[in-house]
Amino acid sequence: MVVAILSALLATGLPSFMDWVQNTQIRSTAESIASGLQVARTEALRRNTPVQFILTGNGGVGETGWEVRARNSDQLLQSKPAGEGGTKSQLATVPADARMVTFTGIGRVMNNSDGSPRLTRVDIDNPSLSAAQSRDLRVTISDGGSIRMCDPATSGSDTRAC
Q: pLDDT averaged over the chain?
């Protein structure tokens, strides 16, 4: 009898638990990217020199790694390996081929020294979840250097809205 009850509970609760775990990976990835961007901006301010935030993956599932580098010396200041905390997460950048953003010594965004497109937004998704189940998140970078994490599914006056 106990086994039957346990089996019924697992059968009903396991799918929603798995959705929760995968949505938590989206949040973890978004927080990691926002944190990396904040580190880059803070280091640029602290050093009074340009600092770059670089996405190291190519946008595939689990390729969520990043690096923060001093632009002038190419010194690695901090990094996060791909897949750590978000093995099922997938990134989409705006512009689509952007992988880097550079912060000036006063914390504003500047053009990348290699001429590559400047990263302005990162959308984090989990392709194994349906749109109804997924709680996608977005990280935006303004020209003024402001970094914000928001929920594209939220609208109106909600502070989580994009």
A: 87
- Cα separation, 31 vs 20, in Å, equals 16
In 81-144, at which residue ranges do the beta strands (DSSP E only) sit? 90-94, 100-103, 109-110, 121-125, 137-141
Position with higher pLDDT, 132 vs 140: 140
Domains assigned to the chain: 19-150 (3.55.40.10)
What pairs with residue 161 in β-bridges? 151
Q: Where are the alpha helices (DSSP H) in the chain?
A: 2-47
Q: How far is Cα 75 from Cα 150, in angstroms, rounded to an integer? A: 31
pLDDT beyond 60 at 59: yes
pTM for this model (two decimals): 0.85
- Is there a cis peptide before residue 95, judged by omega within 30 degrees of 0? yes
156, two tokens: 């109106």
Q: What is the Cα–Cα distance from 132 to 47, expressed in whole angstroms?
A: 44
- Phi/psi region, residue 53 (left: phi>0; alpha: psi -120 to 50; beta: rest), is beta
